[in-house]
Fold:
Amino acid sequence: MIPQAITGLQCSKCKWMAPAEPFVYTCPKCGENLDVVYDYDKIAASCPRLSLNKDHDASMWRYLPLLPVKEAPENRSLRVGGTPLVDFPHIAKKTGIARLQIKDDTRNPSGSLKDRASELAIQHAREQGQSTMIAASTGNAGSSLAALSAFHGMKSIILVPATAPPAKLTQILQHGAQLVPVNANYDTAFDLAFDWAKKHQSYCRNTGVNPILAEGKKTVALEIAEQNEWKVPDHIFVPVGDGCIISGVYKGFFDLLALKWIDFIPALHGVQADGSAAIIDSLSHRGEIQAVSANTIADSISVDHPRDGSKARRAIIESGGRGFRVSDDDILAAQKLLSETTGIFAEPAAAAAYAGFLQASEAGVFKRGDHVVVLITGSGLKDTASAQKLLIPVGAVNANLADVENFLDSSQG
Ligand SMILES: Cc1ncc(COP(=O)(O)O)c(C=O)c1O
Ligand SMILES: [Zn+2]
Structure:
């Protein structure tokens, strides 16, 4: 067991400090989302940066001293986190930058970055004495909670819009979670899950309103820093729906800067679909974030009312990042280009980050020496129907050499 370094949960709006125990989801004073606050001197004393070099655990649990739980789970062998950060010099050269890296979080156990949050939330729920968790999800948080609950022996209940991609619904059922497909959008499912958790005193893994989730997601930032030997990139592109991933990425770099393990926080660029851009739209006026009526092919970032909008906006502004809006056509084109040039198959929401990178490049945002990371948050195998929109269907060929050769000649690209 490590010495607990949490000093409390601080409101991101009124700055009220709630104790870490008993755990509260949102600010008891004003209802806004909370940030986990640490005693950085205590962390520095118990875990000097160099000590990580000796840790052979490649999973996100290598960062336990910076996480809000007492212990890591006994079994970490499914390995959440520790995903590849892959260099693409040919794309960097073409773009006129020094370095492009893709952080491939499709390589988590259930195929998305959400595993980082589920893994931490399950351990946190255990430490709260809970045995049942509920979550509303556009699909990935649910499939992630279902998979990791199966691994850790937790009971999970998942509310999703009935229109979620079939592969994500299949994942949830396959892992034995109780699936509740609701005839409503994600926002309604969110409120229902929260109400159920309150009524039945269960643990709620709803994005945004549970500060533990951003702490799990922040481990991707810790990895990006460590994998670059603590020389952080200049820019990071992050797809944004509710805004919890980008606020988690910001929190990771914020913690590292407070520990003086890095020199600055990279510019965090938030990318939203044109049809679901409440957070990006609010950047220009900085007033209240106005809900939209979301409509985009990128189901994972299709959100009317972003539940972590204020913290996401803070992450973009305070890191010196920008907001990018991309169309569904841009997303599908970026998804195909990414697959063809890197070998990485992203789902539409994740490909939105790459579309944002392409848009920024065209807009002349980068300087020659820049180091850019694009965060790919979920696997394309979860939604093959979207990718198929740009593919030309291929008919069957008669099983003889001449027909195969004719086919290859006629279909040469
Ligand atoms: C693959 C993927 N990318 C991006 C996001 C957006 O994350 P957030 O809602 O925290 O902004 C999600 C959320 O479901 C996701 O599953
Ligand atoms: Zn408050």
In short: The domain at 93-110+217-388 is CATH 3.40.50.1100 (Rossmann fold). The pocket of zinc ion (ligand 2) is lined by residues 11, 13-14, 16, 27, 29-30, 32 (CB under 6 Å). The first helix runs from residue 40 to 46. The first strand starts at residue 6 and ends at 11.
